[in-house]
Amino acid sequence: MMREIGVGLIGYGLAGRVFHAPFVELTAGLQLRAVVSRDAAKVHAGLPGMAVVPDVAALLARPDIDLVIVASPDDFHADHAVAALKAGKHVVVDKPFATSAADARRMAQAAGDSGTMLTAFQNRRWDADFLTLRRLIAEGRLGEIVHFESHFDRWRPVPAAVWKEARAGGSWLDLGPHLVDQALCLFGRPDAVTADLAALRPGAPAPDWFHVVLHYPGRRAVLRSSKMAADHGLRFAVHGTGGSWIKPGIDPQEPAILGGAAPGGPDWGLDPIQGHFTNGVDPAQSVPNERGDYRLFWQALADALHGKGENPVPAAQAIAVMEVLEAGMASSEQGRRITLA
Protein backbone atom coordinates (compact mmCIF):
# COMPACT_ATOMS: atom_id res chain seq x y z
CA MET A 1 0.00 0.00 0.00
CA MET A 2 1.08 3.60 -0.69
CA ARG A 3 2.27 5.34 2.47
CA GLU A 4 0.14 8.34 3.37
CA ILE A 5 1.87 11.71 3.37
CA GLY A 6 1.06 13.57 6.58
CA VAL A 7 0.02 17.16 5.81
CA GLY A 8 0.15 20.23 8.01
CA LEU A 9 -1.65 23.44 7.08
CA ILE A 10 -0.44 26.89 8.15
CA GLY A 11 -3.46 29.19 8.16
CA TYR A 12 -7.18 28.57 7.93
CA GLY A 13 -8.42 31.65 6.10
CA LEU A 14 -10.03 31.55 2.67
CA ALA A 15 -7.10 29.75 1.04
CA GLY A 16 -6.72 27.12 3.74
CA ARG A 17 -10.44 26.56 4.17
CA VAL A 18 -11.48 26.56 0.49
CA PHE A 19 -8.51 25.65 -1.69
CA HIS A 20 -6.41 23.38 0.51
CA ALA A 21 -8.13 21.43 3.26
CA PRO A 22 -11.05 20.07 1.17
CA PHE A 23 -8.76 18.90 -1.61
CA VAL A 24 -6.15 17.34 0.65
CA GLU A 25 -8.86 15.29 2.33
CA LEU A 26 -10.00 13.94 -1.05
CA THR A 27 -6.55 13.14 -2.44
CA ALA A 28 -5.32 9.56 -2.24
CA GLY A 29 -1.95 9.41 -0.54
CA LEU A 30 -2.39 12.63 1.47
CA GLN A 31 -3.80 13.00 4.99
CA LEU A 32 -4.37 16.34 6.72
CA ARG A 33 -3.16 15.93 10.31
CA ALA A 34 -2.78 19.37 11.86
CA VAL A 35 -3.64 23.03 11.29
CA VAL A 36 -1.87 26.11 12.65
CA SER A 37 -4.52 28.54 13.82
CA ARG A 38 -5.33 30.86 16.72
CA ASP A 39 -9.02 30.03 16.29
CA ALA A 40 -9.54 26.34 17.01
CA ALA A 41 -13.32 26.70 16.93
CA LYS A 42 -13.18 27.99 13.35
CA VAL A 43 -11.06 25.04 12.28
CA HIS A 44 -13.27 22.52 14.05
CA ALA A 45 -16.38 24.00 12.44
CA GLY A 46 -15.05 22.80 9.10
CA LEU A 47 -12.76 19.98 10.24
CA PRO A 48 -14.23 18.28 13.32
CA GLY A 49 -11.60 16.61 15.48
CA MET A 50 -8.66 18.12 13.58
CA ALA A 51 -5.50 18.75 15.64
CA VAL A 52 -4.96 22.50 15.99
CA VAL A 53 -1.51 23.76 16.99
CA PRO A 54 -0.69 27.29 18.16
CA ASP A 55 2.28 28.11 15.97
CA VAL A 56 4.51 27.00 13.11
CA ALA A 57 7.22 25.67 15.43
CA ALA A 58 4.74 23.26 17.01
CA LEU A 59 3.69 22.03 13.58
CA LEU A 60 7.25 21.50 12.38
CA ALA A 61 8.11 19.58 15.55
CA ARG A 62 5.56 16.89 14.70
CA PRO A 63 7.23 13.81 13.19
CA ASP A 64 3.98 12.80 11.45
CA ILE A 65 4.02 15.87 9.19
CA ASP A 66 5.78 15.33 5.85
CA LEU A 67 4.23 18.13 3.78
CA VAL A 68 3.47 21.69 4.90
CA ILE A 69 1.02 23.98 3.12
CA VAL A 70 1.88 27.65 3.62
CA ALA A 71 -1.37 29.60 3.50
CA SER A 72 -0.39 32.34 5.93
CA PRO A 73 -0.41 36.08 5.05
CA ASP A 74 1.93 36.99 2.20
CA ASP A 75 4.67 38.57 4.31
CA PHE A 76 5.20 35.26 6.13
CA HIS A 77 5.35 32.98 3.08
CA ALA A 78 9.12 32.97 2.65
CA ASP A 79 10.02 32.59 6.33
CA HIS A 80 7.42 29.88 6.94
CA ALA A 81 8.46 27.97 3.82
CA VAL A 82 12.18 28.18 4.61
CA ALA A 83 11.60 27.03 8.20
CA ALA A 84 9.58 24.05 6.99
CA LEU A 85 12.13 23.14 4.33
CA LYS A 86 14.99 23.32 6.83
CA ALA A 87 12.96 21.02 9.08
CA GLY A 88 12.95 18.46 6.28
CA LYS A 89 9.35 18.99 5.20
CA HIS A 90 8.08 19.27 1.65
CA VAL A 91 6.26 22.56 1.03
CA VAL A 92 3.34 23.94 -0.98
CA VAL A 93 3.10 27.75 -0.98
CA ASP A 94 -0.09 29.62 -1.81
CA LYS A 95 0.07 32.63 -4.09
CA PRO A 96 1.82 34.95 -4.14
CA PHE A 97 4.75 32.55 -3.78
CA ALA A 98 6.71 35.34 -2.05
CA THR A 99 6.73 39.13 -1.87
CA SER A 100 10.03 39.47 -3.74
CA ALA A 101 12.04 37.53 -6.27
CA ALA A 102 14.94 37.44 -3.81
CA ASP A 103 12.78 35.67 -1.23
CA ALA A 104 11.54 33.25 -3.90
CA ARG A 105 15.15 32.34 -4.71
CA ARG A 106 15.92 31.97 -1.01
CA MET A 107 13.08 29.48 -0.71
CA ALA A 108 14.30 27.50 -3.70
CA GLN A 109 17.81 27.42 -2.24
CA ALA A 110 16.46 26.03 1.04
CA ALA A 111 14.64 23.30 -0.85
CA GLY A 112 17.79 22.42 -2.77
CA ASP A 113 19.87 22.33 0.39
CA SER A 114 17.42 20.08 2.22
CA GLY A 115 16.56 17.81 -0.70
CA THR A 116 12.86 18.47 -0.22
CA MET A 117 10.15 19.39 -2.72
CA LEU A 118 8.94 22.98 -3.05
CA THR A 119 5.93 23.80 -5.19
CA ALA A 120 3.59 26.72 -5.80
CA PHE A 121 -0.17 26.35 -5.67
CA GLN A 122 -1.12 27.62 -9.13
CA ASN A 123 -4.57 26.10 -9.24
CA ARG A 124 -5.75 28.25 -12.14
CA ARG A 125 -3.75 26.08 -14.52
CA TRP A 126 -6.66 23.67 -14.03
CA ASP A 127 -9.48 26.15 -14.72
CA ALA A 128 -11.97 24.99 -17.34
CA ASP A 129 -11.46 28.05 -19.53
CA PHE A 130 -7.65 27.89 -19.43
CA LEU A 131 -7.65 24.17 -20.25
CA THR A 132 -9.97 24.95 -23.16
CA LEU A 133 -7.60 27.62 -24.44
CA ARG A 134 -4.63 25.26 -24.20
CA ARG A 135 -6.59 22.71 -26.26
CA LEU A 136 -7.39 25.28 -28.95
CA ILE A 137 -3.75 26.33 -29.16
CA ALA A 138 -2.56 22.71 -29.32
CA GLU A 139 -5.04 22.02 -32.12
CA GLY A 140 -3.69 24.99 -34.07
CA ARG A 141 -7.14 26.44 -34.44
CA LEU A 142 -6.07 29.95 -33.45
CA GLY A 143 -2.89 29.90 -35.52
CA GLU A 144 -0.07 32.07 -34.21
CA ILE A 145 -1.29 34.10 -31.23
CA VAL A 146 -0.60 37.81 -31.65
CA HIS A 147 -2.83 39.31 -28.94
CA PHE A 148 -3.71 37.60 -25.67
CA GLU A 149 -5.95 39.40 -23.20
CA SER A 150 -6.71 37.96 -19.77
CA HIS A 151 -9.14 39.61 -17.35
CA PHE A 152 -9.90 39.03 -13.69
CA ASP A 153 -12.45 41.73 -12.93
CA ARG A 154 -14.82 42.09 -10.00
CA TRP A 155 -17.52 44.39 -8.69
CA ARG A 156 -16.39 45.36 -5.20
CA PRO A 157 -16.75 49.15 -5.15
CA VAL A 158 -16.20 49.48 -1.39
CA PRO A 159 -12.80 48.35 -0.06
CA ALA A 160 -13.09 45.75 2.68
CA ALA A 161 -11.29 46.30 5.99
CA VAL A 162 -9.04 43.26 5.63
CA TRP A 163 -5.27 42.89 5.25
CA LYS A 164 -5.57 41.59 1.70
CA GLU A 165 -6.96 44.92 0.53
CA ALA A 166 -3.90 46.71 1.93
CA ARG A 167 -1.18 44.26 0.84
CA ALA A 168 1.85 45.73 -0.90
CA GLY A 169 1.18 45.59 -4.62
CA GLY A 170 -2.56 45.33 -4.02
CA SER A 171 -4.50 43.23 -6.48
CA TRP A 172 -1.40 42.81 -8.67
CA LEU A 173 0.06 40.52 -5.98
CA ASP A 174 -3.34 39.00 -5.25
CA LEU A 175 -4.79 38.22 -8.68
CA GLY A 176 -1.74 38.94 -10.81
CA PRO A 177 0.03 35.67 -9.90
CA HIS A 178 -2.79 33.71 -11.57
CA LEU A 179 -2.74 35.73 -14.77
CA VAL A 180 1.05 35.89 -15.00
CA ASP A 181 1.44 32.15 -14.42
CA GLN A 182 -1.08 31.34 -17.14
CA ALA A 183 0.65 33.67 -19.61
CA LEU A 184 4.05 32.14 -18.85
CA CYS A 185 2.63 28.64 -19.26
CA LEU A 186 1.45 29.58 -22.75
CA PHE A 187 4.22 31.83 -24.03
CA GLY A 188 7.22 31.59 -21.72
CA ARG A 189 9.22 34.44 -20.25
CA PRO A 190 8.52 37.85 -21.84
CA ASP A 191 11.21 40.23 -23.00
CA ALA A 192 9.82 43.17 -21.06
CA VAL A 193 6.93 44.36 -18.88
CA THR A 194 4.97 47.62 -18.97
CA ALA A 195 2.53 48.09 -16.09
CA ASP A 196 0.11 50.60 -14.66
CA LEU A 197 -1.17 49.86 -11.14
CA ALA A 198 -3.66 52.20 -9.50
CA ALA A 199 -6.04 52.59 -6.58
CA LEU A 200 -9.29 53.76 -8.20
CA ARG A 201 -11.86 53.11 -5.46
CA PRO A 202 -12.35 55.90 -2.94
CA GLY A 203 -10.38 55.01 0.18
CA ALA A 204 -8.57 52.05 -1.39
CA PRO A 205 -5.35 51.49 0.63
CA ALA A 206 -3.51 49.71 -2.22
CA PRO A 207 -3.82 49.23 -5.99
CA ASP A 208 -7.16 47.71 -6.97
CA TRP A 209 -6.71 48.07 -10.74
CA PHE A 210 -3.97 47.02 -13.11
CA HIS A 211 -3.21 46.99 -16.81
CA VAL A 212 -0.02 45.10 -17.59
CA VAL A 213 1.52 44.33 -20.96
CA LEU A 214 3.97 41.47 -21.39
CA HIS A 215 6.12 42.08 -24.47
CA TYR A 216 7.04 39.17 -26.74
CA PRO A 217 8.41 39.27 -30.29
CA GLY A 218 5.35 39.59 -32.52
CA ARG A 219 2.95 39.16 -29.60
CA ARG A 220 1.49 41.10 -26.69
CA ALA A 221 -0.12 39.60 -23.60
CA VAL A 222 -2.38 42.02 -21.75
CA LEU A 223 -3.30 41.25 -18.15
CA ARG A 224 -6.09 43.31 -16.62
CA SER A 225 -8.06 43.52 -13.40
CA SER A 226 -10.48 45.99 -11.88
CA LYS A 227 -12.61 45.87 -8.74
CA MET A 228 -14.86 48.58 -10.19
CA ALA A 229 -16.25 46.49 -13.04
CA ALA A 230 -20.00 46.05 -12.63
CA ASP A 231 -19.94 44.23 -15.97
CA HIS A 232 -17.13 41.77 -15.44
CA GLY A 233 -18.08 39.03 -17.86
CA LEU A 234 -15.00 38.96 -20.10
CA ARG A 235 -12.34 36.44 -19.10
CA PHE A 236 -10.25 35.88 -22.24
CA ALA A 237 -9.93 37.56 -25.63
CA VAL A 238 -7.37 35.74 -27.78
CA HIS A 239 -6.58 36.75 -31.36
CA GLY A 240 -4.36 34.80 -33.72
CA THR A 241 -3.63 34.32 -37.39
CA GLY A 242 -6.27 31.58 -37.52
CA GLY A 243 -9.06 33.38 -35.68
CA SER A 244 -10.30 34.71 -32.36
CA TRP A 245 -11.66 33.09 -29.22
CA ILE A 246 -13.69 35.17 -26.78
CA LYS A 247 -14.57 33.61 -23.42
CA PRO A 248 -16.89 35.17 -20.84
CA GLY A 249 -17.53 33.81 -17.36
CA ILE A 250 -15.32 32.41 -14.63
CA ASP A 251 -14.34 28.87 -13.71
CA PRO A 252 -17.08 27.51 -11.38
CA GLN A 253 -14.93 25.63 -8.84
CA GLU A 254 -14.24 28.42 -6.34
CA PRO A 255 -17.89 29.60 -6.24
CA ALA A 256 -19.01 26.00 -5.80
CA ILE A 257 -16.80 25.44 -2.76
CA LEU A 258 -17.76 28.79 -1.26
CA GLY A 259 -21.37 27.72 -1.72
CA GLY A 260 -20.78 24.61 0.37
CA ALA A 261 -20.15 22.01 -2.33
CA ALA A 262 -17.45 19.39 -1.87
CA PRO A 263 -15.03 18.87 -4.76
CA GLY A 264 -16.18 16.07 -7.01
CA GLY A 265 -19.41 14.81 -8.47
CA PRO A 266 -20.61 14.51 -12.07
CA ASP A 267 -20.92 18.27 -12.60
CA TRP A 268 -17.69 19.30 -10.87
CA GLY A 269 -15.66 21.76 -12.93
CA LEU A 270 -18.18 21.99 -15.76
CA ASP A 271 -18.30 25.58 -17.00
CA PRO A 272 -21.74 26.19 -18.57
CA ILE A 273 -20.67 29.41 -20.32
CA GLN A 274 -19.03 28.57 -23.62
CA GLY A 275 -16.63 30.80 -25.50
CA HIS A 276 -16.97 31.60 -29.19
CA PHE A 277 -14.51 31.15 -32.05
CA THR A 278 -14.55 33.06 -35.31
CA ASN A 279 -12.15 32.95 -38.22
CA GLY A 280 -13.33 36.31 -39.55
CA VAL A 281 -15.31 34.76 -42.39
CA ASP A 282 -17.69 32.13 -41.09
CA PRO A 283 -20.28 32.74 -38.35
CA ALA A 284 -18.98 32.49 -34.78
CA GLN A 285 -19.06 28.98 -33.32
CA SER A 286 -19.56 27.95 -29.71
CA VAL A 287 -16.56 26.10 -28.28
CA PRO A 288 -17.24 23.32 -25.75
CA ASN A 289 -15.28 23.74 -22.52
CA GLU A 290 -12.86 21.31 -20.99
CA ARG A 291 -13.66 20.21 -17.44
CA GLY A 292 -11.78 22.17 -14.78
CA ASP A 293 -10.43 20.23 -11.82
CA TYR A 294 -8.15 21.54 -9.08
CA ARG A 295 -7.90 17.99 -7.76
CA LEU A 296 -5.42 17.32 -10.55
CA PHE A 297 -2.83 19.56 -8.89
CA TRP A 298 -3.12 17.72 -5.60
CA GLN A 299 -3.03 14.26 -7.15
CA ALA A 300 0.00 15.23 -9.22
CA LEU A 301 1.70 16.46 -6.05
CA ALA A 302 0.88 13.27 -4.15
CA ASP A 303 2.20 11.19 -7.04
CA ALA A 304 5.40 13.25 -7.17
CA LEU A 305 5.98 12.82 -3.44
CA HIS A 306 5.57 9.08 -3.89
CA GLY A 307 8.11 9.06 -6.74
CA LYS A 308 5.53 8.51 -9.46
CA GLY A 309 5.63 11.83 -11.27
CA GLU A 310 7.04 15.34 -11.51
CA ASN A 311 6.53 18.39 -9.32
CA PRO A 312 3.37 19.97 -10.82
CA VAL A 313 4.68 23.55 -10.37
CA PRO A 314 8.48 23.59 -9.88
CA ALA A 315 10.03 26.39 -7.84
CA ALA A 316 11.79 27.73 -10.94
CA GLN A 317 8.40 28.49 -12.49
CA ALA A 318 7.26 30.22 -9.31
CA ILE A 319 10.41 32.35 -9.34
CA ALA A 320 9.72 33.33 -12.97
CA VAL A 321 6.24 34.51 -12.00
CA MET A 322 7.67 36.50 -9.10
CA GLU A 323 10.18 38.18 -11.39
CA VAL A 324 7.38 39.38 -13.69
CA LEU A 325 5.31 40.59 -10.73
CA GLU A 326 8.30 42.49 -9.38
CA ALA A 327 9.02 43.99 -12.80
CA GLY A 328 5.38 45.09 -13.01
CA MET A 329 5.61 46.97 -9.73
CA ALA A 330 8.86 48.62 -10.82
CA SER A 331 7.35 49.60 -14.17
CA SER A 332 4.35 51.24 -12.55
CA GLU A 333 6.46 53.08 -9.98
CA GLN A 334 8.98 54.33 -12.55
CA GLY A 335 6.57 54.94 -15.42
CA ARG A 336 8.58 52.97 -17.97
CA ARG A 337 9.01 49.62 -19.64
CA ILE A 338 11.15 47.19 -17.64
CA THR A 339 13.35 44.81 -19.61
CA LEU A 340 13.80 41.37 -18.06
CA ALA A 341 17.36 40.10 -17.90
From TrEMBL:
It comes from the Bacteria. The keyword Oxidoreductase applies. Residues 134-340 form the Gfo/Idh/MocA-like oxidoreductase C-terminal domain. Residues 5-119 form the Gfo/Idh/MocA-like oxidoreductase N-terminal domain. Keywords: Oxidoreductase, Plasmid. The keyword Oxidoreductase applies. Belongs to the Gfo/Idh/MocA family. This is Oxidoreductase. It comes from Novosphingobium humi.
